[in-house]
Please model this.
Amino acid sequence: MDETDLIQAAKRGDVESFNVLVLAHQDTAYSVAYRIMGEADAAADATQEAFISAYQKLHQFRGESFKPWLMRIVTNACYDELRRRQRRPATSLDALSDVQPMPDLELHTPQENPEHHVQRRELNSAIQDCINDLPDDQRVIAVLSDVEGYAYQEIAGMTGLPLGTVKSRLSRARNRLRDCLRGIRELLPTEYRLMNE
Amino acid sequence: MTVSPQIPSDRDLELLSAYLDGELTDREKDKLEQRLARENALRAVLDDLRETVTLVRGLPRLKAPRNFTLDPAIYARAVPWWKRLFSPQAALQLTGALGAVASLVIILLAVLLSRGASEKSLMTAEQAAPGQPSQLAMQPTATPLPSEETAIAYSGEGLLQTTLAAQSLYYATHAPTPTLQPTQPAAGFAGPAEAPAPLAMEAGAAPSSADMTQTGGYAPLEAQDALGAAAPPLPTAPPAAQPMLAAPQAAAPPAGNEFAEGQGQEGNNNESETQVGSVTNAVTEEAQAMAAATATPAPAAQAQRGTPEAASEKEAAKEEKGERSPSRWWLAGIGLVLLVFSVTLFVLGHRQRHA
Model:
């Protein structure tokens, strides 16, 4: 049963068919949610809300590509979660600690050197910190474009923003990331040298 | 080549960002490339941006920490009720439920009809049974004696004798008669109600209105009073007396006919009593046929005897109903079969929905 059949069955109320779609897209959805939210629990909450919302709004799906439609719902769920947290700021135990834990959920090859794996994790954590420092509107665009690789037009469709707004927000986000990562790039080789020594 | 020391503007950064993504038009792209060839600072910024984008795009795809599948027990309810109603399983279940209700209605209807018919038959039998004082008490407006006299008055000739005979028959049949079966007195009692009319026709003395009036004058005073009270318009039987007339005849009209013959010929109390005994033992199909034949009136008499004839038709209809009443249980049987079928459909639909 292909994706179209699964969607049609889910539209008729077949939850099991929808769950097949969930299993096929949950990694992508959670990854986007995590990059936007910057926190594992919040990303999981947003992902779950997104799939529930997608099932309830499935009758609105008009046959376009399912993944961008789902990513739009995930993005909106992240926006809702961000707004909810801004209204009721709650400090989690993770946020109280100095180091934001990076979940070991990355898909890596088993042949990877453990040292390189650690270095890569630190670099990814630093990049994620830079992303987290972006304003919400720029962060969503940066994640959709540079993490997920969507084109401008697709991002405009997902976020409901004009194409020019997408371009300008992405440009500002990249400029901020460039400034943030410039210092990290200067630090990381030294650490790598120390670790290699 | 000249190196521009200027810091790139927001517009330049936007162009560089779009240039990295291939989102510039050909004209924008040409102009930017010309500037990049001239401006080292702009080219350095472009390199920084490219490295940044490369780092970010190198972020790995994360694996979901758990499954985000939905629980069917909870989210299956999100389907609109009308879609669930028109599912094949729900339609099967609904059909079974409606069929069960319909079959119950059919069974109830059959039971009520059969019970009503049996009660009518019972009432007929009880009304026709003589020697039971309770019957007279139950039918105060249609006592047997005036009814008999009214019917006898239709016959025209020999009215006085038949009236006397009917009275004697009434008293004779109300007396304990060991030889009579419970239904036999009913037949004998029912006889005088209408049987004299056919008998009078056979005798070639079809009565006219004048005859009726005259014969009414010959009737005893109490008979006339009963006639006036129970049946003021002669052609139509009094509503109160009609059930009393019709019911006994429905029980045994042919016996009544034979009794009328004997009554008209004999006109004697003793002979009437004996005739009752003989008549009630002669309830046969042939007598029914004879009753139907003798009930065919002459045109002149037909107008006068409209009431007895209509009553006989009603009796025949009631007789048919009485015969059919036990067979109404076939309707209940059909309802029962339909009920079993409907319940089976309902159970099948229920199982399929919750499978």
Remarks:
- Chain A touches chain B through 53 residues (CB under 8 Å).
- Residues 6 and 21 of chain A are 7 Å apart (CA to CA).
- Residues 93-101, 191-197 of chain A have pLDDT under 50 and may be disordered.
